[in-house]
Amino acid sequence: MTAVSTPRAKAPHDEVSVAVQRRRAWARSAGLVTAVVVLGLLVLVSLSVGSKEIPLGDVWAALFGNPPDDYTATVVESRIPRTLLAVVVGAALAVAGAVMQGITRNPLGDPGLLGVNSGAAATVVTSIAFFGVSAAGNVWVALPGAVAAVVIVYAIGHGRGHGSPARLVLAGAVVTAVFSAYVQAISLSFPDAFAAYRFWVIGSVAGRGFDTFWSILPFIVVGLVLCLSLVGPLNALALGEDSAVALGARPGVTRLVGGAGTTLLAAASTAGVGPIGFVGLAVPHIVRALIGGDHRWLLPFCVVLGPALVLTADVVGRVIARPDELMVGVITAFIGAPVLFVVVRRLGARA
């Protein structure tokens, strides 16, 4: 007589677990939609606020070809490039920071961790001092230094072995120190280069046009595609090196692709608006506090909340220093410093 197998009934805790996961997914989806709406409102505010405020209704009408007058149309049009730059640069820096923290398993990671920003700054100041090339928007000026820095860091961090997150972080600190010393030496030796460099190095979206936006956009798109393709491997890597290998992930390839993606994102952003600090550090931690560390949700939220942070900083900088304005890099430093303090406190509590 043949035994007939019956399907195992689902345990009550399995059904509860599925229900909890569905509620979390719905909550995260609703949160992401809300964040997109907030970002859209911030875009309108960015187009509205300045030395001369434009009512939001007039901004909306100007965007759809029905401005109340030529002056409104001109003002809104002049603010579009800096708003678009704030959006793409914010997304680039936030995603780069999240991926950098993931591939190094270092909660204090940001795009500058592997020397990307200092390498880009080194070639920028060199181009200004020796070749008279403008830095703003010239990706081909910043990109070689950023790539060189990452290659050197990986060469030092891996050595003859397989490397480790700790070795990569230490190598990044060394390379950053060397490039930063070089930048300081060139800036102080060439007064003209220092005069141009000191405005660029603070980081600002003001004074840039569509030419800057279109020149950096392809690099940022490619970098975002590379980074967003790593959501699965980054989740596996978060469990540890051995667990990631057991799950079929390849940590070396993940770090290589992640390094390439973050290099493109950081170099293009740095070339376009100068180095803007703390966005790559602060935004991923803010997102983790809201929705957890699952990279399937973490990176999309960073794509939205990164621009929201940069736009907010840009608007605040325009409002608090009227008729002048504070640069974005200054405002993000004030926002990011408390986040860094909180993260360090939490790390100290876990130690």
From TrEMBL:
It comes from Okibacterium fritillariae. It holds the Pfam family FecCD. It is found in: Cell membrane. The chain crosses the membrane at residues 30-50, 80-100, 112-133, 139-156, 168-187, 217-240, 260-286, 298-320, 326-344. Belongs to the binding-protein-dependent transport system permease family. FecCD subfamily. PANTHER family: FE(3+) DICITRATE TRANSPORT SYSTEM PERMEASE PROTEIN FECC-RELATED, FERRIC ENTEROBACTIN TRANSPORT SYSTEM PERMEASE PROTEIN. GO terms for biological process: siderophore-iron import into cell. One of its GO terms (molecular function) is transmembrane transporter activity. It is a multi-pass membrane protein. CDD domains: TM_ABC_iron-siderophores_like (cd06550). One of its GO terms (cellular component) is plasma membrane. SUPFAM superfamilies: ABC transporter involved in vitamin B12 uptake, BtuC (SSF81345). The keyword Transmembrane helix applies. The keyword Cell membrane applies. InterPro entries: ABC_BtuC-like (IPR037294), ABC_transptr_permease_BtuC (IPR000522). Keywords: Cell membrane, Membrane, Transmembrane, Transmembrane helix, Transport. This is Iron complex transport system permease protein.
